[in-house]
Amino acid sequence: MLFHSTRGKDNNKTFEEILMQGLAKDGGLFMPDYWPEVDLDNLKNLDNFIDVAKKIVPLFTDSSFTNIEVEHLLDRTWHNFDKKDFIDIFEINESVSILELFHGPTAAFKDFGLQLAAAFFNKTLQKQKKTAIVFGATSGDTGSAAIDACKEFDLIKTFILIPEGNMSEIQRKQMTTVHKDNVFPILASGTFDDCQDIVKRGFNERTFLKDDQYLLAVNSINWVRIIGQICYYFYVSLKINNLSSPLNFSVPTGNFGNVFACYAASKMGMPLSKIIVAVNSNDILDRFFRNNDYSKEKVNETISPSMDISVASNFERLLYDFYFEGDTKACSQLYSNFPNSKIEIDSNIWKKSSQLFISYSSDDKATYECMKYYFNNFNYVMDPHTAVAADAVYKLNDKLDGKTIILSTADPAKFPLALKNAGLPPSLPNKLSRILDKKEVAHRLSSKDDSIFEFIKNNN
Ligand SMILES: *Cc1c(COP(=O)(O)O)cnc(C)c1O
């Protein structure tokens, strides 16, 4: 299995190459050359997550690693989860269940993708006798998941920019209380967008790197993260109905990575009815699925900060694969003027959307109300990201047939202020509350000059 760019100018890449490169050289995103098929009969007698992952991950990695190598790696990839089986399923009623994906060490679903990424980064670095710098900015959960996933690997140093703004105290402290020599949380002046600009510049200029050192991105466009997420879609389908009939999935989304993983699983053979694309008031995706209008607007700060985006980077993969069926020219054409002008596709092609997608946008008020509704009626406490997905299911109920799975992407204990404002009791103390008492260590640097690059160089 090789990979190519959605924009057609960076092709025939091995898994290892796209793993370490992240974004394609032509600005596009990497895609597998074909959709590998999963033999469902082979999954049906499996009963744990790792065994399912062993049937999926190797389909994408055979250009660089043997089956045995990958199976060995998967035996130790996902660690420090509170549940033996990594996930949990909470049944609300016959037609709705909640898939809890937040039982990993950083209490958000991003542990699934980033622990897999870190394991393959480390394996590749060992093989090539190289080291790496992980450099990224975070608006919520990516930074802590990346830090946690990489901190035990001595060949990797992780530098994460934490912008001023909207993340919760627990989210910040998950990064600033790690106290490891190869982890550098940086409190950067400016907004998330300022921080992303610095990261982009860092990747262009690379002034702080040593020879023979990789600069690795951990944002959600890295294909390896999608692979990690495909695994849980197959696994939950197996647990819910033994892959026997199609399910609906309601996915709270920002960058469209989690939605795209669901789409990918269906292309690989998982039975799927509808994907509910659930967004907060940053509604670029909802505007596309409702009105064929994909246009960048200013970011709104919401109570679901990990979905506060102005553009959904993984959406390019869907345009390329689902609407344009692999036409790289059409895809690069669409993006040639974006975001200066909006993306609007041929209306006959756009009509395909309703075969698979329904979208909904919930503002903060609706999100709070949904949190309250689930607590009052089902005694279930959910975090605000999950509530965005739950609200969509509630509002779109008439349009859904069969069973619907709401993806719960974060532990409610991560967002105590939102729980309080919704009138819910504080979530039970757990591993997160211990973080609050730990000493914070972070470096305060400007995002307006070169001081961040100098800092990385001095600590490299
Ligand atoms: C990152 C994140 C999301 C959004 O995921 P995408 O793959 O970017 O759509 C949703 N909820 C939580 C809690 C997150 O951390």
How would you sum up this structure, described in words?
It is a single chain. The protein is 43% helix and 14% strand. The chain is of the alpha/beta class. It has a domain at 88-106 and 223-421: Rossmann fold (3-Layer(aba) Sandwich). The protein has a 6-stranded mixed sheet with strand order 3-4-12-9-10-11, sandwiched between helices. Strand 5, helix 7 (141-150) and strand 6 form a beta-alpha-beta unit. It is globular.
Query: Uncertain runs with pLDDT below 50, 5 residues or more?
Result: none
Name of the CATH first level of the domain at 88-106 and 223-421: Alpha Beta
CATH topology-level name of the domain at 88-106 and 223-421: Rossmann fold
**Count of distinct strands:** 13
Q: Quickly count the helices.
A: 21
What is the strand arrangement across the widest sheet? 3-4-12-9-10-11
Shape: globular
User: What's the architecture of the domain at 88-106 and 223-421, going by CATH?
Assistant: 3-Layer(aba) Sandwich
Q: What's the average pLDDT?
A: 95
Described by strand count, sense and barrel closure, the largest sheet is: 6 strands, mixed
Q: Please bin the fraction of helical residues.
A: 40-55%
The distinct ligands, each listed once, are: pyridoxal-5'-phosphate
Cα-based radius of gyration, to the nearest Å: 21 Å
Terminal residue distance: 35 Å
What class do helices, strands and sheet pairing give?
Answer: alpha/beta
| Percent of sequence in beta strands | 5-15%
